Amino acid sequence: MHGLVRRPILIWLLAALAVPVLLTAVLIPAKASTTEDDLRDRTMAALRARGVESASVDFDGRDAKIVVPAGVDPAVVREVAAGIEGVRSVSVQGGQDSTPTPTPSPSAAPDGPTVAPFEVGRTNQAIRVQAPVKSQQVKDAIAAEVDQVLGEDREYDDRTTIDPAHGLADASTLTALLRAIAIGTGDASARYDGNALTLSGSVPDQATKATVARAAAKAVPGAVISDQLTAPKPPSAVSEPCRTFPTRLAEFSRQYRINFLSGTAIVNDATKSSVAKAAAVLKSCPTARVEVAGHTDDLGSPATSLPLSERRAAEVKAELVKLGVNANRVLAHGYGQAFPIASNDTPSGRVANRRAEIRVVQGN
To answer: pLDDT tens, 144-170?
Structure first.
């Protein structure tokens, strides 16, 4: 009878010990599955936000395995997935690069930069290189490269130091960057801090800006490029009225004359209509600059003809300004009797020579 009592007690004790074990066996996989599902959902949401819609995402613990279709940049996928909190590593297959490459998340400790920090810069006076190098041979090779791009007006500001353990092993790391950053005047620099390569300063044009950026990417593959270089904006396209302005002004000059009575510089009623038409042509292209050239016949002496021709040019300019032409666009010069367009031996020839002409200033 006592044996029958003890046996149920023993069975209950064994059951009590087994329950926690069974619960642990059930709950731990469930928890792992919940974590993987959470990481998968957050990774897929982040990829969709970057425009990657058809990626296949799986997790083994905190290690992501992602398959993407052709045309998707694997580097973008790695960057997005590695930035998800809780992700330990990322392996990407497919896309533009079919080789799976594990990428540590930002929380993983990096092994250290493969390229030592450096700075390459230019001013109007110098080319500057600040970098650790492994040997005197590398130091001399960098100096030789700098010598190729210095020019006559700049000096080499050598701030390289020899560091056999961590220095640059090869001058070719900086070759393309040196040649690109040397283009132009003023200040510009490329500074690598072990993580990001920052480009700053000015370059002469957009083509040089692109060249420097490519050289930076070549110098430190995989580095984050912060391109802060500035370049002049390309000139805006010439409008149709300005493109045809010289032709239209020449046609005006053939059809209309601005003439003066003998000995006067007055824009009279007979010529005001011609000046008004000239103003309309000038206002059609607000950026064009012109010269009003005053002339005389040869009835007076050269000493009196020159100032008279200058007054004629000035009067026509003043009339154009009254009609709305910007005064800064109009030059006024007198040429006296030096450039006749007809014979001064006839009355009609002398009338033709008492004139003002409007012509385009070269370099518009």
So the answer is: 999 988 887 889 999 999 999 999 998
Q: How far apart are CA 105 and CA 87, in angstroms?
A: 6
In the chain, which ranges are E strands?
Answer: 56-60, 63-68, 89-94, 103-104, 118-122, 126-130, 132-133, 155-158, 161-162, 188-192, 196-202, 224-230, 290-294, 330-334, 356-360
Note whether 260 and 271 are within 8 A (CB).
Answer: yes
Taking phi over 0 as left and psi of -120 to 50 as alpha, with beta for the rest, 312 belongs to alpha
Structural tokens at position 137: 């041979």
Query: How far is 306 from 273, CA to CA, in rounded Å?
Result: 26
pLDDT in tens, 335-355: 999 999 999 999 999 999 999
The sign of the CA dihedral 297, 303, 307, 308 is negative
Quickly tell me which residue has 């090869």 as its tokens: 170
β-strand 161-162 against 132-133: which pairing, if any? parallel
List the 290-294 sheet strands across, edge first.
330-334, 290-294, 356-360
The 10 Å Cβ neighbour count of residue 150 is: 14
CA neighbor of 358 nearest in space, from 286, 251, 273, 285 = 251
C-alpha span between 71 and 96 (Å, rounded): 6
Q: What pLDDT was estimated at residue 94?
A: 76
Whether 256 contacts 278, CB under 8 Å: yes
For 315, counting Cβ atoms within 10 Å of its Cβ (0-12 exposed, 13-18 middle, 19+ buried), the class is buried
Count the alpha carbons within 13 Å of 45 in the hemisphere toward its beta carbon.
7
CA 192/CA 111 separation, integer angstroms? 17
The low-confidence residues of the chain, meaning pLDDT below 50, are 1-5, 21, 23, 25-31, 97-99, 104-113
